Amino acid sequence: QDETQLVKRIVVALDVRSNDAGDLVVTKGDQYDVREADENNVKGRGGVRNLGARYYTEGADEIAFLNITSFRQGVLDDMPMLQVLEEASKNIFVPLTVGGGIRSYTCDSTGEAYSALTVASRYFRAGADKVSIGSDAVYAAEAYYQNSNSNSNNTNNISSIEEISTHYGAQAVVISIDPQRVYTNEPSHPVHKVVPLSKGKGPNGEPYCWYQCTVKGGREKRDICAVRVAVACEKLGAGEIMLNCIDMDGQCQGYDHELMKAVSEAVTIPVIASSGAGKPVHFTDVFRETGVQAALAAGMFHRKEVEIDEVKKHMLEAGVPARLS
Fold first, then answer.
1. CA angle 111, 159, 110 (to 5 degrees)
2. Where in the sequence numbering do the catalytic residues fall?
3. Sign of the Cα pseudo-torsion (15, 18, 24, 27, in order)
4. Other Cβ atoms within 10 Å of 156 Cβ, number
5. What is the pLDDT of residues 180-198, one digit of tens each?
6. How many C-beta neighbours within 10 Å does residue 53 have?
């Protein structure tokens, strides 16, 4: 009798933000820069509702709506995003992940405080199956290690991960990590996970690197590596890791395999490879050479350079299990 084999998932990301006219659009930049080079306008790739429905029809296994400027305001103030999600969920019948601004915050105008659970619950009511936590996950990991090092058993400050996971289950909590390479000549570090570079070297010939986490959409660096954040978040109750790489974002040169290997080998929960896909072989390669369970792409699908079915057929031809629509 044949063993049940889990298929590898193709996830399409819609990076959502307001353009300069105030309309909610899907955008895609290079290394987290979403502005046009010539006019400094937001790069619009299409309407959120239309693209979401299109990718469901074309065979995406999951769709992620990522509100990339939500750190500037509270989710509960962002009614257009909630309305788009409510409309999209009526016609999309694959898992929907929604990210951006999943944190506790106080409204500037009213002074009212909202918990991360309240924010996540609003997304779930609007049709999300999972919520993606970004910056707040890095802060939670930092606090986790600080408490561990001080032998503190502080239960007063429960992280957003624990809060949401306890209420909705680990499968509903995705951690989005945005690291950037830090090149080094040293093969190890007392804290950070250092990996050898298999393709090329750093700008000054460095043969190694570690992956420094960022917050606030890549705008602020933190002194913690991606592997340590992933490990801490799994222990706190996360059910999945969405692993980006700022260096590879928008480059269409393939995923960062060193990063994907390092994290997927350090955790037991599924890892979604993100940043760098440009052609079908990039998906096949990351599935064959690393332990990730899913791979995410955005720009190549938005620009219609490659179809989702084309990616899956390439995977199947290479012996990588995939679900054809």
1. 5
2. 15, 178
3. negative
4. 4
5. 999 999 999 999 999 999 9
6. 17
Radius of gyration, alpha carbons of the chain: 19
The tokens describing 284, both together, are 């096949």
What are the tokens at 30?
Answer: 């290079």
- Block residue for tokens 């690197």: 209
E strands, the chain, in order: 9-18, 24-27, 44-47, 62-67, 96-99, 105-106, 113-114, 130-133, 173-184, 195-196, 208-215, 220-225, 240-243, 271-273, 294-297
Question: What tokens does 53 get?
Answer: 């429905």
Instruction: List residues bridging with 241 in a β-sheet.
Output: 175, 271
Task: Give the CA dihedral 113, 164, 139, 182, nearest 10 degrees.
Answer: -140
CA dihedral 58, 62, 68, 70 (to 10 degrees): 130
- If one counts every other C-beta atom within 10 angstroms of the C-beta of residue 2, the result is 4
Give me the sign of the Cα torsion angle 253, 258, 261, 262.
negative
Q: What pLDDT, in 10s, does the model give residues 201-244? A: 999 999 999 999 999 989 999 999 999 999 999 999 999 999 99
Which tens digits make up the pLDDT trace of 20-35? 665 667 875 454 444 4
Instruction: Name the pLDDT band for 75 (thresholds 50, 70, 90).
Output: low
